[in-house]
Amino acid sequence: MRPPLRLSEESLFGFLTSTGLPVVSSLSALIRWISLGLAVGCGLFGLACFVFLDDGFWSVHAPWSGALPSLVAAPMFATAWHHWRHRKLQKAATWLFAALFALSMVANAPRGGFSPAWYVHPVLCLLATICLGVIPGLSLTMVAVAVLLLSAWVTPGDGVPIELLPELWVHVTSLAAVSLASALAGAIVNRLLFMTLITAEAQRRKNLESSRALRYREKLLRHALRVETIGDLAGLVCHQLRNTFQVLLGHVTMGEMSDDRERVRRLGLIEETVQQTKPLLDQLMVMAHPDEGAPAAIAILPVLRDFADQARLVLPSSIQLDYDLPTELPPVWIDARGLVHALWNLVINARQAIHGEGRIAVRCGCDQGRVWVEVADTGCGIPEDVRGRIFDPYFTTKPAGQGTGLGLTAVARFVRGSNGSIDVASEVGRGTTFRMVFPALPAAKAESA
Question: 184 to each of 95, 144, 180, 191, 192, how far by Cα in Å?
Fold first, then answer.
């Protein structure tokens, strides 16, 4: 059962941080240093006004209304910087907006309701409710509106003439209404952002679950592919081991009827036969191992030679295995174990297509910067109406219970995953040729790898 989606007031900042985008990190660092700069600047400005101006503590005649607004806002900016530094984004943003509101309100209060700096408040109210949320943003807005209305009682100079008082109250109440409207608009935008975050988070979880399910199905498919290949290979190995055991029993029987010198010779022959059989069992263990290796820059010729030597031990004597390999090939970026797996699938299919005597050839070469590997047989061939479906999953022409239709699917999947291509040429009664083509690594990349 999935846990419910719970997004708090900090979700907007948490979401921006969790994206990991460089621009978000740069913006966060910029805001943090702006907070520190404002804290230092306000502190120095307040001290300068307090020391160098006669009426500089809090007066309409002082710049920015004197030292008091700056000295009130400086600790708030410093607190905001402290929370940004410790990645407490919601608290940092709250203190930052509170400092901006405090600086504006305290600076404008002695200047009266006609001060043009009050027009900054609608913008601050909008940004505060968008960034902080409904409750913190509206709280700051209500405080700002209350101070704005109270400022109508404070007028600079000798006061406002009687005939201008109605105009003053209309101006102040209109600006207060605009500030409240801006805060409500910001609250709506904040809710829309949260709805977007919830939708994005739900979609992210859905995509994550789909990705997990897809990886699990791919794991099951790889397991099925491996089991099918191991089953076919085990049948050939068991046939070869049966012949090997008959040879071993013959040596044991002849050794029992011979003298000591002959027994020593027979033991040497038994040891040689067992050593020839060991690679077959090692190959089965490698194929059964769940680790599928990883792509790397490899020389393909040694892999093909080792595979051909092991395949000769497995194939019956009625089938001749030839391989035509050049003396040199450029390296390719593939998984060597995956290549061996693909070759076994192709050779096993070729073995099953040959009835009686026949020949299987493994060839490779390089053409126009691409390395190709071919597996050709003299079997029954593939009918034209079937040829277009041989790489489809679970498609097989074998009788029920004798094939899953995943062998060639595994080959095609490996080749495409290695940025290669696979082609098939076949003629009924004359055989089939599969060609895998892989891009060769340039010399510079091969040396660095």
Answer: 21, 14, 6, 11, 12
Question: Which pTM value belongs to this model?
Answer: 0.48
Claim to verify: residue 204 and residue 298 sit in the same structural domain: no
Enclosing domain of residue 135: 11-211
Same domain, 36 and 172: yes
Give the tens place of pLDDT for each residue, 169-209: 788 888 889 999 999 999 898 888 888 877 877 887 888 88
Structure tokens belonging to residue 119 = 């027009």
User: 68 phi and psi, to 5 degrees?
Assistant: -60, -50
Same domain as 184, residue 300: no
Look at 251 and 211; give whichever has higher pLDDT: 211
Q: Are residues 331 and 423 in the same domain?
A: yes
CB distance 343 to 287 below 8 Å: no
Contact 292, 229 (CB under 8 A): no
66: left (phi over 0), alpha (psi -120 to 50) or beta: left
User: The domain spanning residue 391 has which CATH number?
Assistant: 3.30.565.10
What is the total count of domains within the chain? 2
Rounded distance between C-alpha atoms, residue 81 and residue 75, angstroms: 10
Q: Please say if the pLDDT value at position 362 is more than 70.
A: yes
Do the domain assignments include residue 271?
no
Residues 6+ apart with CB under 8 A from 183: 125, 126, 128, 129, 137, 138, 141
In 3D, which of 275, 239, 264, 269 has the Cα closest to residue 251? Answer: 269
For 320, the token pair is 């001749």
**Domain boundary residue, one of 211, 246, 266:** 211
Alpha-helical segments (H) within 289-418: 300-314, 336-353, 384-387, 407-417
Question: Sign of dihedral through CA atoms 307, 309, 314, 319?
Answer: positive
206 and 93, same structural domain?
yes
Cα(128)–Cα(281) distance, integer angstroms: 71
**How far is residue 342 CA from its own chain's centroid?**
28
Query: pLDDT value at position 375?
Result: 92
CA dihedral for 26, 17, 96, 112, sign (positive or negative) = positive
Among the candidates 211, 236, 267, a domain finishes at 211
CA proximity to 371, closest of 446, 281, 264, 447? 446
